[in-house]
Amino acid sequence: MLSKDSRFARGQLKKVIAIYPGSFDPPTNGHLDLIERGSKIFDQLIVAILRNPDKGPLFSLAERRLMLESMTEGFKNVSVDTFDGLTVDYAAKVKAGAVLRGIRAISDYEYELQMALMNRKLHPELETVFMMPAEQYSYLSSRLVRELAQLGGSIKDLVPEMVEQRIKEKLDPAIKLQHAREPKKMRKRG
Question: Is 104 a catalytic site residue?
């Protein structure tokens, strides 16, 4: 017969660390949606920015990191990091047991499934968790935001306000010129 205490005794629960890898150029409200929801599922979520110089990013790695750190500062179990190379190698380095990936459409699923299966082949203990974004972000991608902004369209409600301002600063020559003329101390306050 089990004692009362032994019936309710539990083994030590495993802490689940997940990584959410991507280029995040720029970070969007869709990314933030997945980060927020992922933070509720995993004990620790690491937003891992892939260092990929071949893509010719709009924002530097440091700029993307600062934006994501600002966007996620309210989540106690979310951190931001950078990596290069294979996702599975980075996951092993940070002792992650899961990879969080967003899926917007069937085309995303086909690509992400191939990646998940290859990651499983390379690192069988690493699980991939697919998550659909909220409906209002189901069409949203960093590429579309960049293109829309470069063509002068409104990106309001597609990215956090701070990211929208940073994109305007990057793309608007008048704003660039104004910032170039301001003393450094003035720019840091804005």
Answer: yes
- Supply the Cα-derived Rg of the chain in whole angstroms: 20
Multiple choice CATH, 14-140, 1.10.10.10, 1.10.3290.10, 3.40.50.10610, 3.40.50.620: 3.40.50.620
95 catalytic per annotation: no
Residue with tokens 């599975």: 88
Q: What is the pTM of this model?
A: 0.82
List the pLDDT tens digit at each of the 190 positions of the chain. 555 554 455 555 679 999 999 999 999 999 999 999 999 999 999 999 999 877 788 999 999 999 999 999 999 999 999 999 999 999 999 999 999 999 988 888 999 999 999 999 999 999 999 999 999 998 899 999 999 999 989 999 999 999 999 999 988 765 555 556 666 555 554 4
Q: Which has the closest alpha carbon to 59: 21, 19, 24?
A: 24
**Per annotation, catalytic residue among 39, 64, 142, 146:** 142
Q: Which of 104, 123, 168, 179 is catalytic?
A: 104
Dihedral of CA atoms 3, 11, 131, 53 in degrees, nearest 10, equals: 170
Active-site entry in 31, 64, 65, 166:
31
